[in-house]
C-alpha cells in the first residue's frame, strides 16, 4: 500500500506526493475518487495483473504471425 497526498490540482492533473519520500507524480483527476481534493490523503495499491499481461503477450504474438 502506498500513501499519497494530493498536493494540488492543476487542470486535468493532480500532483500527488507518494510515500515517505514524497515523490511527486502527476495523476489524472478523472481517476481520483469524486469526493477528494487538495490536502487529502489516498491509499494506492498496485498489483501485477498476470492474466492481462499474458493475454497482451499472446495478442502480440498472434499479430506477428499474421
Automatic annotation (TrEMBL):
Annotated Gene3D superfamilies: 6.20.120.50
InterPro entries documented for this protein: DUF3006
Native source species: Selenomonas ruminantium
The name this protein goes by in its record: DUF3006 domain-containing protein
